[in-house]
Amino acid sequence: MSIVEMIERLGALVLDGILQLGQFVMFLLGAVFYMFVPPFKPRLWIRQIRTIGADSLFLIILIGGFTGMVLGLQGYNTLRRFGSEGALGAVVALVLVRELGPVLAALMIAARAGSAMAAVLGSMQSTEQIDALTVLAINPVQYLVSPRVLAGVVSFPLLTSIFDVIGIWGGYMIGVGLMGAPSGAYFNRIAATMTGHDIATGLYKALVFGVIVMWVCCYKGYHAERMATGVSRATTEAVVLSSVLILAWDYFLTSILL
Amino acid sequence: MSEPETSAKAVNGNADANAIEVRDLRRRFGHQQVLDGVTLDFPAGQITTIVGPSGSGKTVLLKHLNLLLRPDSGTIVIDRIEVTKLGARGIDAVREKFGMLFQAGALFDSMPIFDNVAFPLVEKTRLSRDEIAKQVRETLRAVGLEGMENKFPSQLSGGMQKRAALARALVHRPKILMLDEPTKGLDPSRTGAIHELIRRTQKNFELTAVMVSHDVPAVFEVSDRVAFLHQGKTRLNGTVAEVMAANDEVFKRFLAGKASGEENETALAG
Q: What is the distance between the alpha carbons of residues A137 and A134, in angstroms, rounded to a whole number?
């Protein structure tokens, strides 16, 4: 291969990357734009909030509970070394509200609802159902993607809040109930330490993660290749990319919001 | 290679008689020129079937006619409207004039048959629930699917799914019906039944039908006209009798199920 060919290939690769990034961004902008354009379909929004939100509730409660229990156990054993068992409530709550709540909830929802979403849209793409919508003069982005992004924006902060509350109770159950940390101090220290800024930080993160997960999962499903492996590949890529972006953005958001 | 003998017989036909007119349509994907100057007329009230070997551009042509793709050059006139330069709203207005039956039906698998068929009316009209229900039941009866309203697409056979998809394409009473391989994946007896249904529906609803099919020569029995595409061009175009009588080696080879080496390569690539 000559050097000119190598440069040509590299150029084509870069241009293709820029094109795909542009498509990816335009996809989100289109979805957001069509949220504010009639016809409005509240029943689609509600259906998606149920699918992403209500249907993920059990998983969120389960994972939130166990995360809090682990934090209670580890937190108690660590704090006891410094004679600070009384700070257990504050530690569990701050770690959950600022960090673990939004991140773990988002990862769980990406794995459950995001993967299902990518699979549904991918299957619709491969069986020409998205083309059918277009031919019926219905904008598929407005009909399929906008309600899902909106549902993500609504559901993620709510599910994260539930995750946090359940986690704090899980920490209480183990730290206080099992290990013997002081009961009154657990909630008093939370009230004394936790600020509105901490709660807002967690909710901002949840909101951003909601957009990221819905955006990535819808994009990957919507653009699934029309071949036997298209749907499975789209689903895998959706979950992997969502997870990576959640963790990467968590770092940037933490840097900004700290 | 011999030139087409009955080609473009109606190319210069008048706009009143033609529901769709295609002129010098060209479309390239990467290095492949898929449509290379297709010129075709689709007379109103007739079934025109587009046939040709794999990779000849049939489905791509249909995707231009139903406005899923835009050409690199050339024009398409649908019901006297030049559609190639229309904006999104104009395109949607034109799309309401036609119904489309996709290869695999493209029924929404999350909805029962009733909702699938009602979908265009629910989304695009202000008809009352009762009016929609009446129209859906009438259309389902017309395609022989009475009593199947509450079934989901996955609970129906392939032939029934095609019928349901046809009902959805017809429910808003379009002027033009486009069919992409309507009998693909069906056994010969069901193929015959679907062909018969298409013919009966086209007459009852007074439709102009554009059909892409591999089912030669069976599909000619229900067609008024045939367009034979070859290497992105209209090689033959005329009534069924005219096309069948054409002394064209490529078409004869196609009918006999034989392809040249070049065609084989195109088919494999496509």
A: 5
Using 50 as the pLDDT threshold, list the residues of chain B that sit under it: 1-15, 268-270
The answer to whether residue B125 neighbours chain A at the CB level (below 8 Å) is no
Spell out the SS3 assignment of chain A: CCHHHHHHHHHHHHHHHHHHHHHHHHHHHHHHHHHCCCCCCHHHHHHHHHHHCHHHHHHHHHHHHHHHHHHHHHHHHHHHHCCCHHHHHHHHHHHHHHHHHHHHHHHHHHHHHHHHHHHHHHHHHHCCHHHHHHHCCCCHHHHHHHHHHHHHHHHHHHHHHHHHHHHHHHHHHHHHHHCCCCHHHHHHHHHHHCCHHHHHHHHHHHHHHHHHHHHHHHHHHHCCCCCCCHHHHHHHHHHHHHHHHHHHHHHHHHHHHC
Mean pLDDT in residue range A52-73: 96
Find where tokens 């034109």 sit: B94
Question: Which positions ≥6 away from A183 have C-beta within 8 Å?
Answer: A176
Q: How far does B154 lie from chain A, in Å, by closest CA?
A: 13
HSE-up (13 A, CA, CB side) for residue A158? 13
Q: Closest Cα to residue B16, out of B49, B45, B37?
A: B45
Measured between CB atoms, does B119 come within 8 Å of chain A?
Answer: yes
- pLDDT (0 to 100) of residue B266: 53
| Residue B260 pLDDT | 54
Distance in Å, alpha carbon of B1 to nearest chain A alpha carbon: 35
**Are A106 and A206 in contact, with CB atoms under 8 Å apart?**
yes
Q: What is the ipTM of this complex?
A: 0.84
What local confidence, expressed as pLDDT, does residue B262 receive?
Answer: 53
The predicted pLDDT at position B263 comes to 54
Using CA atoms, how far apart are residues B177 and A28, in angstroms rounded to an integer? 34
Q: Which of B225, B108, B235, B116 is nearest to B170 (CA)?
A: B116
User: Which residue on chain A is closest to B65 by alpha carbon?
Assistant: A135
Do B69 and B39 meet the contact criterion of CB atoms below 8 Å apart? no
